[in-house]
Known about the structure:
The chain contains 15 helices and 13 strands. The chain is α/β, with parallel strands linked by helices.
Amino acid sequence: MTQLKVAHITTISDSIHGLLLNQLLSIQEAGYEVVSISSPGAAVAAIETVGIRHIPVEMTRRMTPLADLASLARLYRVMRREKIAIVHTHTPKPGLLGQLAARMAGVPMVVNTLHGFYFHDHMRPQQRRFYVELEKIAARCSDIILSQNQEDIETAIKEGICTRQKIVYLGNGIDLTRFEPNRISPTVLQAKRAELGIPHDVPVVGFVGRLAAKRKGFADFMHAAKEIVGCMPSVRVLIVGDPDYGKPDSVLPSIAKDYGIENHCLFLGSRPNEELPELYALMHILVLPSLFEGIPRVVMEASAMGVPTVATNVKGNREAVADGKTGVLVSLGNVPELVSAITRLLTDMPLRAAMGQAARCMAAERFDERAVFEKIKAEYRQLLGSRGFLFQT
């Protein structure tokens, strides 16, 4: 029986490698032929090494009308040539361009994973309405929309983006076998601290994500770090991630100098996935003061490693952090509240330990990526059956 071809589309290859690779391998193991489509990038070699074919299609992460039309045309040509049965898109730009191209090319089935709507309540009304209308266009192309959080489902229905029948809850997950605290020995942890120049007895506050002043709240994080260092000079601030290149609120590591805390900050840039468990194990707290999320992967990873999180009380974060149990939720943009929550967890070791243990339990119960993969494959089977496709797993 001929394999059905499934194409997953993201803007950049890093998203395929860092966020979707296990998902694509699981789908491929179920008997599909899986291809990945994104802009060319350094991660392509690693994607193809594990057996996932990659097709380069240049896409920007900004609103660039002429370049976007060119990307749409390229996606259309790829889909016509490849005879794809299911197009599965991720993130806003591919969610629009990829789905439009799929419909234009006559792809039988189109799926979109909603990683969090780009629009939010803090946008100007006209700007927000513009992005809502784009989501409506994209949703008309979808056979099914898989939402990573519950709140986006209600938002989609309230804004008239789609019907309740078209959007279903997916959730999000990680590889819990990799993010396992017991796999990091004290010797390994001590060596990692020595490698990074972090004394064994100093507290570590961590941030993992793109360096974006507003979207990820990195400016608020730096402001809070300045206040905390002023009261607790031994604190080290461990930052994993690159500037959010291509976005207007991208910031550089030099921002630490503006706050006078450059000697307390360790900017590591993006790190290999294999190194992340060790880096989380160094942290006493993860901080994520973002504007909105789908369901933040970094919180799931930190939780699995037994690290409590201080995050903003916004969409997505609310589903990943049980306030007062696995971490603390603070008001968006409230730096004093952020400082207070971080300081409380740094100074109250029993509370921090209890939250870390609860976070690990929550991760084991709710953040297993294998459950997410099974939901996706079940949706594929249902779609295929409704369209009369014969497929055996």
